[in-house]
Amino acid sequence: MNIPFNKAFTTGQELPYIAEAIANNQLSGDGAFTDRCQGFLEQMLGAPRVLLTHSCTAALEMTALLCGFESGDEVIMPSYTFVSTANAFLIHGAIPVFVDIREDTLNIDESLIESAITTRTKAIVVVHYAGVACEMDTICKIAKKHNLLLIEDAAQALDSTYKDKKLGTIGDFGTFSFHETKNVVCGEGGAIVINNASFIERAEIIRQKGTNRAQFIRGMVDKYSWVDKGSSFLPGEITAAFLLAQLESHEEIKERRLAAWNTYLQLCKKLSIGKHLTIPSIPVQTTHNGHMFYVVSQSAEQRNYLLEKLNHLGIGAVFHYVPLHSSPVGLKYCKTTGRMANTDRMSGNLIRLPLWIGVEPHQPFIIYTLASFLN
């Protein structure tokens, strides 16, 4: 048996849209499909401006440029996240400052943020792990009190909410990923959401290699020139065409993934998995998108044993991040504040189960197998 950890879902409209993009005779970025994707996301999120990028990493790098970091400036973030969350700011002069995560959601512990703020702190980056929202009211108050920019790494959180607000629209900036492991995909791809309107014009310039080409296309200038720092952050039109087909089916994708997520939850309760492993909890003020179902073992030894047994039977269960504070680059260039007990424990004990549209027939086998090894 082979049950992969991830399998990308396609709607059937991807190839017709790609053919249309080819027929339009513009394969480079910012064509008709890019415009349609950006408009779709702006309406879906209720955001003033969304710009497609070639990855969520690129979107995070754009936020770093927009923040205007100077050498030695600090940005607070969790250590339990993908390397891009820190690297995007490190390469633009900022020092990532790591704080611990909450035990229940694996999101940044909002009670630890204020103690990590120094005179060099310029921004806070939150990561909505597994598509579940951070405690944004508290974090927004801290950011406002200390005049800090707030960035949401919502790579996993498209279609999730916090108190009826779409994740990615609460901070000054939000970033999304459309990597093939996410819910809505285009292979590689991302988007930056600019919620603070004062940054929109500069974001367009940074995204277009530091030129005012967007203004030229709109007829605002008679020629475009190099006016700021920037890089090539655009995706191509074939990528955007694929993405539009996915976005148009985002509600179906979310509903089907949530159904699979809830099946895992009910099977875990039926077999009393919670007596042996910690299962996810969703705060009442949030809705999530069914991005990930994980369990947390009681020890690293138990986690490794379960992973070995599940993988041996062809069940694609996997671990997740190695904490950034313990990585070679994290130790060399970044700062850590306080004990990282939850980060270290969750990193060593967490198991992600296969979750994709079509996994439903395999879910009883996966959970019954997991239960048999626990017993």
Biggest sheet character: 8 strands, mixed
Q: Say what the CATH topology of the largest domain is.
A: Aspartate Aminotransferase, domain 2
| Biggest sheet: strand arrangement | 1-9-8-5-4-2-3-12
Any idea how many domains? Answer: 2
- Provide mean pLDDT, rounded: 97
Q: Structural class, judged by helices and strands?
A: alpha/beta
- The outline comes out as globular
Discrete helix count = 14
List the secondary-structure elements in sequence, H or E. Answer: HHEHEHEHEHEEEEEHHHHEEHHEHEH
Q: Count the beta strands.
A: 13
Q: Which band does the percent of strand residues land in?
A: 5-15%
Highest-level CATH class of the largest domain: Alpha Beta
Question: How far is the N terminus from the C terminus?
Answer: 22 Å
Q: What percent of the residues sit in helical stretches (DSSP H or I)?
A: 25-40%
Unreliable segments of 5+ consecutive residues: none
Name given to the CATH homologous superfamily of the largest domain: Type I PLP-dependent aspartate aminotransferase-like (Major domain)
Q: Would you identify the CATH architecture of the largest domain?
A: 3-Layer(aba) Sandwich
Write down the Rg. 21 Å
